[in-house]
Amino acid sequence: MKLLGIESSSLVASVAVVTDGILTGEYTMNHKKTHSQTLLPMLDELGKLLDLDLSTIDAIAVSGGPGSFTGLRIGAATAKGLGLALKKPLIHVPTVDALAYNLWGTSALVCPIMDARRNQVYTGIYRMKETLEAVMPQCAMDMGDLLKELNALGEQVIFLGDGVPVYEQAICSQAEIPVLFAPPHMNRQRAASVAALGALYYKEGKIEDAASHAPDYLRKSQAEREREGKELLAGDHPL
Question: How far apart, in whole angstroms, are the C-alpha atoms of residue 39 and residue 66?
Answer without folding.
Answer: 18
